[in-house]
Known about the structure:
Strand content: 5-15%
Radius of gyration: 18 Å
Strand order of the largest sheet: 3-2-1-4-5-6-9
CATH class: Alpha Beta
CATH superfamily: NAD(P)-binding Rossmann-like Domain
Number of domains: 1
Shape: globular
Structural class: alpha/beta
Distance between the termini: 57 Å
Amino acid sequence: MSERPVALITGPTSGIGLHLAELLARDGYDLVLVARNAEVLSQLAHDWAQQYDIRIRPIAIDLSQAGAVETVVTTVREHGLRLSVLVNNAGVGVYGLFTDTPLQHERDLLHLNVLALTELTKSFLPDLRESKGHILNVASTAAFEPGPYMAVYYASKAYVLSFSEAIAEELAGDGVRVTAFCPGLTRSGFQHAASMERSGLLRLPEMDAREVAEAGYRAMLKGKRVAIPGLFNRILVASVRFTPRRWVAHLVAWLSRPKQNI
């Protein structure tokens, strides 16, 4: 059993997840790092264990595959760890018209963005109730609007937002604080992984991944139920709330079209 609080974070090898994981390490949490890239995980575990004098358990696994969550839970239990923080950060996107994108890519997206997040939350709730801990679910400003050209991704983030707000209310009496963190465009590897290089959305302002992570971390510690970093993103979300949904969908489609078609 760890004498320090333990945090599990998915997708900690780059972008927002990397900086969230290091913030937890800096504050003395022992870490369980879950991602696909075994080499990067091993290097992070080595560096942070020495720098911050913490214990780190890397788990190299693809959470979009069936049975992956069960493997993670079993590994955590076998090492006698009990979580105080769960950060569901891992997520992927698929760019393109829904009629053209590969179904398997969208199955993997839903498995990672929705199913794995839900299963991890359910599996570790007993720990988090006991520790009166935190859950940070990384959603997106996409959660507030329909998203032509990334229809399944936007829908998955709407699920994360709704799910997080609902269980935040259910768990309030248990002392578990749940935060839905909704960043907008962020300088990270996400856009490349989602094949978004041609998307007109990339002309919009981007935030620095470290700055975004720090905002999410502060929101989690304060127990905020919904947190949106950056003034531009907050204005965007506020404007969506007062605009007819059909107009929003049309605007997002116009912004998201491949650049040469705009």
